[in-house]
Amino acid sequence: MKIPDATAANQKPDGPAYQMPVLFIGHGSPMNAIEDNEFSRAWSRIAQSFPKPEAILCLSAHWETAGTYVTAMLQPRTIHDFAGFPQALFDLEYPAPGEPALAERIRQTVEGVAIKPDFDWGLDHGAWSILRRMYPQADIPVLQLSLDHSKPAQFHYDLGRALKVLRNQGVLVLGSGNIVHNLGAVIWKDIAHDWAIAFDQQIRKLILAGEHDAIIHYQQLGEAARLSVPAFDHFCPLLPVLGLQDKGEAVTFFCEKVTLGAISMSSVLIGQNKPDQV
């Protein structure tokens, strides 16, 4: 795919364009949407550390497709894509508007990839469970961009690079997944397997070192990687987020924790606006 020149982005009338930060958030359990805990509080705080976006584009682990799609409806539905949780979670709605014009702009921005408009999906819990904590008023347009399960890791990283122009147009790009996500190794306690901690820390070091190629080829990182990423879906949203990073750009980590044995909540803010306490 062709990577557009980010400097060609629109500028605000009152001066140079502000470059929005980029986020990867480990979303963990859907219960974080209704529980008052260390993660939900951190998501609320992180949103206060940079200007309110004009729109949000979310890449969630929970929307995998054959091909690449972007939601293009005026009012995306709230999808309760889980089972076995309290009724209070199913009763939640996140009535954020969509923005069809932005969906079309995204389709035109990424050359070489046939991004198709979607009018059926909506907002899955990988998006709304986080956003209802960050922006509880649901007054910011939200779109989702799907993950193409037929494409390799490099494709998703390059997709992020191709979307970089959006950062200068007031769009917050948010990846939602988990660096470590192995439901088969879950322990229902606030503890972690040694291999899960080791892989989580290894990815942190690689991000800080700017070693994106090693992260793209995570399968080569050994047994801890194999156990931590048994399926690509939750790891995948990290890659477009890294693709959106400028060389040498500031990185801040928050929610640095592996819990339930094999679920990493570690989250990353890329951008100039570093929070004081997150």
UniProtKB/TrEMBL annotation:
Domain Extradiol ring-cleavage dioxygenase class III enzyme subunit B: 36-252
Recorded GO MF terms: ferrous iron binding; stizolobate synthase activity; zinc ion binding
Keyword terms, alphabetized: Dioxygenase, Metal-binding, Oxidoreductase, Zinc
Taxonomic superkingdom: Bacteria
InterPro entries xref list: Extradiol_dOase_DODA, Xdiol_dOase_suB
CDD domains: 45_DOPA_Dioxygenase
Record SUPFAM superfamilies: LigB-like
E.C. numbers: 1.13.11.29
Cofactor: Zn(2+)
Keyword Protein transport: no
Family to which this protein belongs: Belongs to the DODA-type extradiol aromatic ring-opening dioxygenase family.
Protein name: 4,5-DOPA dioxygenase extradiol
Organism encoding this protein: Candidatus Methylospira mobilis
